[in-house]
Amino acid sequence: MAPSTAKRIVLYRFDRQPADGIIQPSTCFCDDHVEVISLEGNLQAVLYADLKAICFVSEAASADLFTTHQLFDRRPKAPGLWTRFTFRDGDKLDGVLPHNILEWPAAGYFITPPHAGANRQRAFLPRVALVSTELRGVVGTSVQVLENRRKPEVLRPGQLSMFD
Fold first, then answer.
1. How far apart are CA 164 and CA 13, in angstroms?
2. Residue 37 domain boundaries
3. Cβ of 154: how many Cβ atoms within 10 Å?
4. DSSP of 64-94
5. Cα–Cα distance between 49 and 14 in angstroms, integer?
6. What is the pLDDT of residues 25-79, one digit of tens each?
7. Domain count of the fold of the chain
8. b (16+ CB within 10 A) / e for 102-121
9. Cβ density class 30-66: b for 16+ within 10 Å, e for less
């Protein structure tokens, strides 16, 4: 039996109030929709075209992803690609994407939003909800790049190498 990995979310749709729900990240993202269980226990299939964002939260959190701290005040410190997203309704949201492009799902982007914390840990933005994306900067470097840049250790004459 697979362990339960249900996550609490706030679901944002265009022209609707945000709704609380629960998803199982390993199985909820389908080809054209997301499966969400409301807090009342109803299963909903929300089309990507209707979806604006999904914000992963802890316990009861306020729905403030698009009302407070949408943009970074200064350059973020978390490693990744600092990106600004523009939605179909004109809203803008900054986020940090992982360096590895292969980690980006085809349906959308998983970002770390500004002022990430208990009430806004990560967010999923479907590609069809976006009008444009703008790369604002590259923060840090990936681990593979750092490993390739490390200088080989130079052994002094007469020094034994421990693990050849």
1. 58
2. 7-57+71-149
3. 6
4. -TTTS--S-SS---SSEEEEEEEETTS-EEE
5. 9
6. 777 878 888 889 888 888 888 888 999 999 888 876 677 777 778 888 888 888 8
7. 1
8. eeeeebbbbbbbbebeebbb
9. eeebbebbeeeeeeeebebebbbbbbbbeeebebebb
Residue 162: inside a domain, yes or no?
no
Backbone angles phi, psi at 90, to 5 degrees: 95, -10
| Residue 76, CB-side half-sphere exposure with 13 Å CA sphere | 28
Residue 163 lies in a domain: no
Residue 72, beta-bridge partner list? none
pTM score: 0.78
C-alpha to C-alpha distance for 6 and 4, rounded to whole angstroms? 6
Is residue 156 assigned to a domain? no
Cβ-contact 66, 114 below 8 angstroms: no
